């Protein structure tokens, strides 16, 4: 089974978060030793907002529902190469006049 590609473009200026997973040990004399935790210790998270008519938002919702928060999909974050992401949930908002807003957070995923 191939990995699906998320192709919809979010509203401009998304703000992502990049974190490094670390292990550390503190010692009584104030010394602290720190090391990277695992081979994929850098992760990204992107809260995104999509705005459009009912058909566009329903297509995005269908894509996210198909993956159900568990199956990873391919998406290209700003300043990054295509990578795997998961979306655990989303928030649809009717804006009136046939327009809708959909907010979702994409969290980077890794395959073993």
From TrEMBL:
Pfam families xrefs: Phage_min_tail (PF05939)
Domain of life of the native organism: Bacteria
Protein name from the UniProt record: Phage tail protein
Protein source organism: Pseudomonas khavaziana
């Amino acid at each position: 089974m191939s990995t699906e590609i998320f192709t919809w473009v979010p509203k401009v200026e998304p703000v992502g978060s990049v974190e490094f997973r670390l292990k550390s040990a503190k010692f009584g004399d104030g010394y602290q030793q720190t090391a990277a935790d695992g081979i994929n210790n850098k992760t990204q998270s992107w809260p995104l907002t999509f705005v459009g008519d009912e058909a566009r938002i329903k297509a995005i919702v269908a894509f996210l529902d198909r993956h159900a928060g568990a199956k990873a999909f391919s998406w290209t974050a700003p300043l990054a190469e295509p990578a795997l992401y998961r979306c655990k949930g989303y928030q649809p908002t009717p804006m009136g006049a046939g327009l809708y807003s959909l907010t979702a957070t994409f969290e980077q995923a890794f395959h073993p």
